[in-house]
Amino acid sequence: MSTRALEILQNTFGYQAFRDQQATIVNHVSTGGDALVLMPTGGGKSLCYQIPSILRDGLAIIVSPLIALMQNQVEALQQLGINAAYLNSSLSIEDTQTITRQALRGELKILYVAPERLMASSFLQLLDQVNNNVGLALFAIDEAHCVSQWGHDFRPEYRQLTILHERFPDIPRIALTATADAATRAEIIHQLKLENAAQFVSSFDRPNIRYHVTQKNNARQQLLHFIETQHPNDAGIIYCLSRKKVEETAEWLASKGWPALPYHAGLDAKIREKNQRQFLREEAVIMVATIAFGMGIDKPNVRFVAHLDLPKSMESYYQETGRAGRDGFAANAWMTYGLGDVVSMRQMLDSGDASDERKRLEKHKLDALLGFCESTSCRHQAILHYFGEEHPGDCEQCDNCLTPADTWDATQAARMALSCVYRTGQRFGAGHLIDVLLGKRTAQIERFQHEQLSTYGIGKNLNQSQWSSVYRQLAASGYLDVDFQAYGGLKLTEMAKPVLKGELEVWQRRDAEPEKRSSTAERASRAREAYPGANDDPLWLALKAKRMELAKSQGVPPYLIFHDSTLLEIMNQRPSSLTELGRISGVGQAKLARYGDDFLEVLEQN
């Protein structure tokens, strides 16, 4: 590792040492090598191309899929005194022309562009000119999983980026992503012609995230209980499947006094931008969103991500939950789901326009997620296993490790449930099947004369919620499928046959009893803080207030001034001079010069 790279890390970015494989990657790319980097969210991917961009002569081109992501990165670099800019559709013609001239004159070190703009012939000609005038330092392809046609964020333009290698064969390329299983990894290498690139794969583990999956039982109230007891003053993201549910949930939380905002692709662009800006620039806003929100959101102190509906794959779940706790402090990933989610997701897959091959793959990915939900083993272990990495288990950071799931021999119940599906004609949903098993007299049962079936009333030893759990787990485990031609009715799969014949045991997790609402006093005493004791410290509050004041004066998010982790270290170390403040992690020379006196003044007054 060059001395110059370490100097940039310390003086510009304010960090004393590289983490994990960062130093090796920086050295490899800086000396002209191609690289594929897989590193979890919050692992420091950006430094892997930003420092080589500064070290190498010429202009570095960063391919990024979203306007919000570009803006966030450029604002952060400008705070560090680095000449960076972006070109996208949000700029005026005049601003675009100004940035183009700066690039040609060598006045920029880093330029962010979307893949669509990069592929335009006019931009490729600009790159030719820049290469002839000042040189091109490198190409960085961020969010490289977008190249995968089987992925959850597919962008067809990413598959055309081989033109960079063909047109500029001597310029190093680095592709980066936080989310890629082995198949996606192989596709990135193939599509981007990175067969000769060095591969750097960091651990996918996010040990600071606590995973919790619970069965649905009045999901809104469960969500409210979760926020009240664990995150009363925190920023968070809540994911919902539909736009309607996003708006209804945000409105409902707001009516309960929570600072919740909606975000989905159907909202007016100005409203989306306003809500996103508020989420980034205020301390404890909750964003209720579809998957349209999140990529490129670098807010480091998101303390929780909640799912009110199932994502469609483990990759989606990992990426979405990874937006919590980017600063390395404790965070929660909380999800509630039920049989209705299984039915909805499989119906969406089945009714889509994708090819049969694509549908089979997506069903496989959904089944893997369902298996994760129903698993009784360590959640961290299960996630890492999916991405081809080993984990010893016993993480003490998930529901299954903290409160081991109780399992029971559900063989007899499963046979009853499956038999009821068969005897009613494999055309009814779980609600009607449970009514039959419990011996209820409903209009539908009388209409189809299901009170005459041998399975009528044989399930009174279990209650409604217990039977719901049995059917949910049978569907998640592949014993039952959903027949969408029959309006979502459940039907048997081949796996059900040995169970019905008594040849196979079925063990299921016993669902926990619903949590009771706690009093305000209990909520206050049980609230878990990411920074224990800090919220009661006047100095912490004063430091945050100064950060917010400086951020508002510049129109940037507070974390671009200093991360919470940096403020926490300032609070604990109480530096008394600029020299001492400069030793704090995250305080580079540009920020020290710009903000040092302001924060020292806060320390003197408190």
Automatic annotation (TrEMBL):
Its EC number is 5.6.2.4. The keyword Plastid does not apply. It holds the Pfam family RQC. GO terms for biological process: DNA recombination; DNA repair; DNA replication; SOS response. Its cofactor is Mg(2+); Zn(2+). SMART domains: DEXDc (SM00487), HELICc (SM00490), HRDC (SM00341), RQC (SM00956). Residues 510-530 are annotated as: Disordered. Residues 219-367 form the Helicase C-terminal domain. GO terms for molecular function: 3'-5' DNA helicase activity; ATP binding; DNA binding; four-way junction helicase activity; hydrolase activity; metal ion binding. Residues 533-606 form the HRDC domain. It catalyses: Couples ATP hydrolysis with the unwinding of duplex DNA by translocating in the 3'-5' direction. It comes from the Bacteria. Residues 510-529 have a biased composition (Basic and acidic residues). GO terms for cellular component: bacterial nucleoid; cytoplasm; replisome. The keyword Hydrolase applies. Keywords: ATP-binding, DNA damage, DNA recombination, DNA repair, DNA-binding, Helicase, Hydrolase, Isomerase, Metal-binding, Nucleotide-binding, Zinc. InterPro entries: DEAD/DEAH_box_helicase_dom, DNA_helicase_ATP-dep_RecQ, DNA_helicase_ATP-dep_RecQ_bac, Helicase_ATP-bd, Helicase_C-like, HRDC-like_sf, HRDC_dom, HRDC_dom_sf. Residues 26-198 form the Helicase ATP-binding domain. Belongs to the helicase family. RecQ subfamily. This is DNA helicase RecQ. It comes from Candidatus Methylopumilus turicensis. The gene is recQ.
